């Protein structure tokens, strides 16, 4: 039996776009977090500051 979404005014295209946007945002966050870890490892304060600011702007 196919599961149905609860009644919602959103079209399937809008829901799909929202899912893709979240996936892209999550992917970017993960990449930035790894880069932040790397900047800490090599003690690059400027890169760390830039990346943490970028991460703040994603949320």
Structure overview:
- The structure is a single chain.
- The chain is mostly helical and 59 residues long.
- The chain contains 2 helices and no strands.
- It has helices at 12-41, 45-58.
- α1 runs antiparallel to α2.
- The longest helix is centred in the middle third of the chain and has 30 residues, at 12-41.
Write a concise synopsis of the structure shown.
The protein has two helices and no strands. It is mainly α.
Please give the alpha-carbon distance between the first and last residues.
37 Å
Q: Give the low-pLDDT segments.
A: none
User: Helical percent range?
Assistant: over 70%
- Which outline best applies? elongated
Quick one: how many beta strands? 0
Helix/strand structural class: mainly alpha
Mean pLDDT: 91
Strand content: under 5%
Figure out the total of helices.
Answer: 2
- Along the chain, the helix and strand elements come as HH
The gyration radius over C-alpha positions equals 18 Å
């Amino acid at each position: 039996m196919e599961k149905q979404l609860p009644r919602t005014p959103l079209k399937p295209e809008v829901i799909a776009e929202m899912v893709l946007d979240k996936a892209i945002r999550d992917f970017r966050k993960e990449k930035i977090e790894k880069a932040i870890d790397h900047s800490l490892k090599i003690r690059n304060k400027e890169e760390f500051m830039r990346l943490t600011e970028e991460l703040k702007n994603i949320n």
